[in-house]
Amino acid sequence: MKIYVKSFSELSNLEIFEIFRVRTQVFIVEQNCPYQDIDEIDKTCLHVFMKNESGEVVAYSRVFNRLLDKKISQIGRVLTIVRGENLGYKIFNQAIKVAFDELDADMIYIEAQVYAVNFYKKFGFEVVSEEFLEDDIPHVKMELKKAKVD
Q1: I need a labelling partner for 67 at 20 to 30 A (CA). Which of 15, 46, 53, 73 fits?
Q2: Is the pLDDT of residue 126 over 70?
Q3: Cβ atoms 91, 70 nearer than 8 A
Q4: Range list of β-strands (E), 52-150
């Protein structure tokens, strides 16, 4: 499966639909967490995703520079629909490349669900906060500095 990196204006109507469909499926329905998933960031971020042969989005993340510091990128909304095929690793690895190479970040920031911390540590991310609740789901803040991956 091919990985796509597109700005909002480059997405087709079907791709926008698929991205919002899978994000709703995972973050709102599966996690039973009603919150405002679609936001203003969607219009300005880079969407990193994989599609299956039918055109359905099966892995996704979004990457954007934080408003207060353009040298810090943030990755969010990381998901996979297909399990056991290493898609999470592939999509997140590409999101890291996008942050460092395309957005010229010196550091990447994420707010990780606690159950996924070990996944992010495999990429070199370090926990930099105490646990906190975001929409009633335990999270921690994590960071990866570019110097660690160079």
Answers
A1: 15
A2: yes
A3: no
A4: 57-65, 72-80, 107-113, 126-127, 132-134, 137-145
